Amino acid sequence: AYTDQLERKGCAAGAVSALRTQIAAAEKANGAARNTALDAAVSAAEGARGCDGKKTDLLKKALQDLRAPAM
Fold first, then answer.
1. DSSP 3-state assignment of 69?
2. What is this structure's pTM?
3. What is the maximum alpha-carbon separation in the chain?
4. Least confident span in 5-9, 24-28, 46-50
5. So what's the pLDDT on residue 63?
6. Spatial distance between the Cα atoms of 49 and 56, rounded to a whole number of angstroms
7. H helix intervals, the chain
8. pLDDT tens-digit profile of 31-42?
9. What is the pLDDT of residue 48?
10. Do the beta carbons of residue 45 and residue 11 sit within 8 Å?
11. Which one, 11, 16, 49, 59, has least CB within 10 Å?
12. How confident is the model at residue 59 (pLDDT cuts 50, 70, 90)?
């Protein structure tokens, strides 16, 4: 939902597309690979920060909350 909101806000299409790609990769991964993909998605979210910092921060928090705790 956050990526849709960023897109409607007029954020750079390339940044939103890259973010969606990173999120899709995280959804397909497991364990440490999932955490790595989620970290990449958080980094990709920075590309949309200039458009809507508040929404980007909420998205980053949601992605970080999905990380599996380190064992």
1. coil
2. 0.81
3. 40
4. 46-50
5. 92
6. 5
7. 2-9, 13-28, 31-45, 53-65
8. 899 999 999 999
9. 74
10. no
11. 49
12. very high
pLDDT averaged over every residue in the chain: 87
- DSSP conformational letter for 51: T
Task: Single out the residue of 36, 33, 40 nearest to residue 19, CA to CA.
Answer: 40
**Could you give the angle at the alpha carbon of 27 between the alpha carbons of 4 and 55, nearest 5°?**
30
Nearest to 19, CA basis, from 49, 29, 32: 49
Give the integer Cα–Cα distance in Å for 30 and 15.
Answer: 24
What is the 8-class DSSP label of residue 70?
P
On the CB side of 14, how many CA atoms lie within 13 Å of its CA? 1
State both tokens at 24: 């899709």
Per-residue pLDDT for 28 more than 90? yes
Answer yes or no: are the C-beta atoms of 18 and 11 closer than 8 Å.
no
